Amino acid sequence: MLRCAALPGVDLFLKGPPERRSVSLGSPDGFIPPPPEPMALASTARWRMLGARPLAAILRYALPGAPDEVLLVVVKAPSGEAPGCLVAILAGIAGSENAEADALADGRATAFRCGVDRPTFLGERAGAALQRAGLAWVRLQ
Q: What mean pLDDT comes out for the span 22-43?
């Protein structure tokens, strides 16, 4: 397991081989399931904030050999003792979906109830491989 400094008070934990990294925010408990197919996790997370409080992290996973074909994974930040969880997955082409992912994180993560609500997959513009990977990942929740 790897521990990465993220925001003050919210570390990012990684486990698993590089092509199947699973992520947890805030504590080494509560990992979201790894991608169902081999995918490379990017080296940075984009944080969405509500004032000074982290709301969600947006993680970028890419298909092997196709770094421009990405899944943006919205993970709700932990709240108190409750771990974070997968809120949504957005499939697309690198760079074109950042505003959409930000809006999805800002609009859905606040009210999302981990363990109760179902994650969303948005990928109608994506190729078949990304659609398969994203839909399979959401079904693991």
A: 89
pTM score, two decimals? 0.91
Taking CA atoms, 103 is separated from 50, 76, 89, in Å, by 13, 13, 13
Distance CA 71, CA 64 (A): 12
Tokens of 126: 């994506």
Nearest to 55 by CA among 15, 5, 10: 10
What span, in angstroms and rounded, lies between the C-alpha atoms of 48 and 68?
22
Give yes or no for residue 117 having a pLDDT over 90.
yes
**Interior CA angle at 69 toward 67 and 36, to 5°?**
95
pLDDT for position 22:
92
